[in-house]
């Protein structure tokens, strides 16, 4: 095994680099613990959350007014108390159930419209026209009409949820399909793929990063629309949801409980982003080499 000597600008020897074709001569060393910690995506995000919690606690201590801005510890105490009494859990599950129904319906409609758009020219015109007309319209602005059409209940919530989810998902999905390269399209055509098989085997895998972004945005839009709608009328069918929990506690001046409800919203957002969508990213676009 020969060695190569490298020199700096002054001619001093720096490193002896072994030159060999035998892979067994090279020994991989594990990274130091501090580098592995810094390289961990989970650890970095936990660090950011801890900093936010510290800032929250310090600001709450500085204001020293729970009616204005309760501390993190007071919020956690109210959260535990609401969970123990069962009110927060029940209303959280009611909101989550309606949210999942509206989200699934919105994604299904967006998928159908986008498949039609990439299959026919008239479908593209319909999707682009409807998206330009209704995408800028806030979902909560349709709530008065929804109440007239579907009454004070789950139907109205589902209507505004579908509207909030439909357009961002359809827009990102359609944009992803249009960005698929001509080469991939020609591959599908050469294999004789048409219609749904062409969409499922060529367009969806190639456009999946854009589709996943649309699903994330749709989830965020749907969740905040759900809370906003329940702040207007949360006691649908006599149950109520998380938005109604926040509204009731605000009326009772239980501000730590209000922050506990907001904490539940934030917690669900973090869980869905880092467990559900992140797992999908790792198993799809990162594994396929489409995203780092």
At a glance:
The protein has 292 residues and is mostly helical.
Arithmetic mean pLDDT: 80
With helices defined by DSSP (H or I, 4 residues minimum), what is the helix count?
A: 11
Kindly state the percentage of residues in helix.
over 70%
Instruction: Encode the helix/strand succession as letters.
Output: EEHHHHHHHHHHH
Distance between the termini: 37 Å
From the helix content, strand content and strand pairing, which structural class follows? Answer: mainly alpha
* Biggest sheet descriptor: 2 strands, antiparallel
Number of strands: 2
Q: How would you sum up the global shape?
A: flat
Work out the oligomeric state of the chains in this entry.
single chain
The spatial strand order of the largest sheet comes to: 1-2
> Uncertain segments of ≥5 residues (pLDDT<50)?
13-17
Walk me through the structure.
The protein has helices at residues 33-39, 41-63, 72-85, 87-119, 121-134, 143-150, 154-178, 182-190, 195-232, 242-251, 255-286; strands at 2-7, 13-19. The protein has 292 residues and is mainly α. The chain has a two-stranded antiparallel sheet with strand order 1-2. Helix 9 runs parallel beside helix 10 (242-251). The chain starts with a strand and ends in a 6-residue tail after the last helix. Mean pLDDT is 80; it is low at 13-17.
């Amino acid at each position: 095994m020969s060695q190569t000597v490298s020199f700096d600008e002054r001619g001093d020897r720096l490193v002896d680099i072994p030159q060999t074709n035998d892979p067994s001569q090279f020994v991989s060393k594990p990274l130091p613990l501090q580098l592995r910690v810094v390289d961990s995506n989970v650890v970095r995000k936990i660090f950011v959350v801890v900093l936010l919690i510290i800032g929250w606690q310090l600001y709450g201590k500085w204001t020293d007014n729970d009616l204005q801005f309760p501390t993190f510890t007071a919020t956690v105490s109210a959260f535990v108390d609401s969970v123990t009494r069962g009110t927060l859990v029940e209303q959280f599950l009611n909101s989550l159930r309606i949210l999942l129904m509206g989200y699934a319906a919105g994604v299904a409609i967006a998928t159908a419209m986008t498949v039609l758009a990439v299959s026919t020219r008239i479908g593209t015109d319909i999707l682009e026209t409807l998206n330009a007309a209704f995408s800028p319209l806030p979902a909560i602005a349709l709530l008065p009409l929804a109440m007239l059409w579907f009454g004070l209940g789950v139907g109205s919530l589902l209507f505004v949820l579908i509207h909030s989810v439909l357009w961002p998902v359809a827009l990102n999905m359609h944009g992803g399909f249009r960005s698929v390269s001509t080469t991939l399209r020609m591959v599908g055509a050469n294999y004789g793929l048409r219609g749904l098989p062409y969409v499922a085997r060529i367009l969806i895998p190639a456009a999946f990063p854009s589709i996943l972004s649309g699903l994330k945005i749709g989830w965020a839009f749907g969740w905040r629309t759900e809370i906003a709608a329940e702040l207007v009328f949360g006691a649908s069918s006599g149950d109520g949801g998380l938005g109604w929990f926040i509204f009731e506690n605000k009326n009772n001046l239980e501000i730590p409980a209000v922050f506990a409800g907001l904490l539940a919203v934030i917690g669900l957002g973090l869980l869905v982003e880092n467990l559900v969508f992140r797992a999908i990213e790792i198993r799809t676009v990162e594994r396929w080499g489409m995203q780092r």
